[in-house]
Amino acid sequence: MDAFYASVEQRDFPEYRGKPLVVGGPPEGRGGVVATASYEARKYGIRSAMPSRTAQRLCPAAIFVYPRFDAYKAVSRQIREIFRRYTDIIEPLSLDEAYLDVTHDKQGIGSAISIAKHIKQAIRDELQLTASAGVSVNKFVAKIASDMNKPDGLTFIGPSKIEAFMEQLPVEKFFGVGKVTAAKMKSMGFHTGADLKELSEAAMVQRFGKTGKFYYQIVRGIDRREVQPHRAAKSLSVEDTYQEDLTMPEEMRGELGKLVVRLVSRLRKAQLRGRTVTVKFKFHDFTIITRSQSFPEPINEEQRLLHAAMQILERTDLSGKRVRLLGVGVSNMETPAAVQDIASGARDVQLKLF
């Protein structure tokens, strides 16, 4: 979807249309962060995850609104219903993005490009929103293609074009290559796919570890990952940013207690349990640390999670630190029964996590 949260706001509130709109915390607060920005705001350099104060400096006329996640979830469900008219193999990545495998053409349309056009038109006609689509033979290339001509774009990269496409692609655009890895690659003289393609698989592994094997395949446009309609959650977490920095241990204990209650509610709703508890700390200078504790068996009980979070807090040296954000999460998940059923052939069971 194109600038999803902001587009929903502009659709629902005509007074925001055509104006620089920022969805996120207000710039007056300490921890305001941009969730997304309209294309009118992006012209000023405003981007997701940017502090709201920075966004306001870039565009003093920007309008700031709090996110309405219930509204976005409702629209996301409507989008998924449109998808299901064309395929049953849908892998959601977030509220506004998904992979669709259209190998089985439910409506007999005849081509993936035409299916993408039908979906985009249905979203426009029924929801008054725009989407951008990428069409190709695998997930990685389709994902890159979907970002190429936003907003309201449709990009097809066929088999004969993939090799040349991958060679000209900047390394920071490659799946699994973050800022740190991209900087490392560039320091070694690798700036594009063509540069990386000069390396053998052994040389890739020598320079980048186990992921070097994956990079060796991706740079050649090879991605054998299937679209997974019943993907299990790998982790679940909650967090809060505070208007005033937390400095006292008793304050942090109180806030951790509230976070654990929210986390337990979400875990039980999703029927999930995990073996690793993690507490996240973001300080006033925006540095982040995480500390974890693992258990031999999966848990989702409030008292055990709370005890683990408090132990982590006690072991973490926070002397002289001002905490602006706290988070608690559970990972190393136990496979839910629903996913086990699907794996054994019970295709009528779905696990939905929002």
TrEMBL record:
| Residues annotated to bind Mg(2+) | 96
Q: What are the catalytic residues? A: 97
Q: Which residues does the UniProt site feature Substrate discrimination point to?
A: 5
What EC numbers are recorded for this enzyme? Answer: 2.7.7.7
Q: Record's PROSITE patterns? A: UMUC
Name a Pfam family for this protein: IMS
Membrane found in the keyword field: no
List required co-factors. Mg(2+)
GO MF annotation list: damaged DNA binding; DNA-directed DNA polymerase activity; magnesium ion binding
Q: Reaction catalysed?
A: DNA(n) + a 2'-deoxyribonucleoside 5'-triphosphate = DNA(n+1) + diphosphate
Q: What is the enzyme's main class?
A: transferase
Indicate where this protein resides in the cell.
Answer: Cytoplasm
Q: What is the free-text note on the cofactor? A: Binds 2 magnesium ions per subunit.
Give the keywords, sorted: Cytoplasm, DNA damage, DNA repair, DNA replication, DNA-binding, DNA-directed DNA polymerase, Magnesium, Metal-binding, Mutator protein, Nucleotidyltransferase, Transferase
Q: Which GO terms describe its cellular component?
A: cytosol
Enumerate the InterPro entries for this protein. DNA/RNA_pol_sf, DNA_pol_Y-fam_lit_finger_sf, DNA_pol_Y-fam_little_finger, DNA_polymerase-Y, DNApol_IV, IMS_HHH_1, Rev_trsase/Diguanyl_cyclase, UmuC
Which SUPFAM superfamilies does the record associate with it? DNA/RNA polymerases, Lesion bypass DNA polymerase (Y-family), little finger domain
State the similarity comment.
Belongs to the DNA polymerase type-Y family.
Q: What does this protein do?
A: Poorly processive, error-prone DNA polymerase involved in untargeted mutagenesis. Copies undamaged DNA at stalled replication forks, which arise in vivo from mismatched or misaligned primer ends. These misaligned primers can be extended by PolIV. Exhibits no 3'-5' exonuclease (proofreading) activity. May be involved in translesional synthesis, in conjunction with the beta clamp from PolIII.
Which PANTHER family does this one have?
A: DNA POLYMERASE KAPPA, DNA REPAIR POLYMERASE UMUC / TRANSFERASE FAMILY MEMBER
Summarize the subunit comment.
Monomer.
Q: Under which name does UniProt file this protein?
A: DNA polymerase IV
Native organism is Parapedobacter composti
